Amino acid sequence: MDFLKLFGREDVSSKDIAKERLRLILVHDRANVSPQFLEMIKSQIINIISDYVDIEEEGLEVKLTRMKKDEEITVPALVANIPIKRIKHVARA
Amino acid sequence: MGQVIVITSGKGGVGKTTTTANIGTGLALLKHRKVVMIDADIGLRNLDVVMGLENRIVYDLVDVVQGVCRLKQALIRDKRFENLYLLPAAQTKDKTAVSPEQMKDLCDQLREEFDYVLVDCPAGIEQGFKNAIAGADKAIIVSTPEVSAVRDADRVIGLLEAAGFEEPKLIINRIRPDMVKRGDMMDIDDIIDILAVDLLGVIPEDERIVISTNRGEPAVADENSKAGQAYRNVTRRIEGEDVPIMSLDVEPTLMERLRMLFGLKPRK
After folding, report:
1. Which of B93, B217, B259, B260 falls between 20 and 30 A from B242, CA-CA?
2. CATH number at residue B41
């Protein structure tokens, strides 16, 4: 099946690619979030989480995307990907 | 009292001016309405050229606003179509020569006498856009089935809603049924789904638009033009008629005909 994947891009019609890209672009446009705004969120998340866990700051990613709420509805979603190095046990009290 | 409709898009080159010319001509020609088209693209006027009226300009919009001439003196009557008039933009001034308040006054003056005042908006979302929408009560958005055009249309719809426009209507221009069929162009449903607005019309890509623009004769008056037919339908919808969206089926290709001949299913 893997060789099919090699040609996989051809299976997805270019209009579907256009539609998906457009949807994501519009999530950003409509939310009107600046990269600075996302950076702000990112640094605050680091501040809070660092009390409990060691995180890999370079790997931390915060982005605005879309998520399926159910079959029909897709909603904008803020997704944070936080790589954890170590859980700080001191925090458990 | 007539209505003022602005034709806008955000992105340039999607067919605002062609759409304005065709709707304006359509309303005058098919519905015998009294129509004036305002070219609000100051500094880059083109509606006069598309309409073939470029040699008749004496005064322009800025002259009217600055009191150099009376409004009536600046209106160009199209001799081919009864009840059709053009108020050309100034070519040598810039967009700051007019303010939104002045545009609003101008539109209100014109609606006293005309059934329709169509405002051809410049590309962009700055001063020229703000001027063009200032006096309008309705908006028509023109987009092509491309990512960039749809994105800009979405932005403009947002700005129009913020400015108090209810239910802007969409015209999808330059659609290519053969590409839609191949899955290489977004179709009507895709775009409506994304922009969530009402559809006013779909205009197929048509060589005859180039020809009619070359001649300065709007395609809506051309019986042999598919785009012209689509604009005639748009005209009737603006007048409240319930006209179904033109079917954009393409002729099967030779290969597809062969496949059908052998009883094979057409390839999706």
Report:
1. B217
2. 3.40.50.300
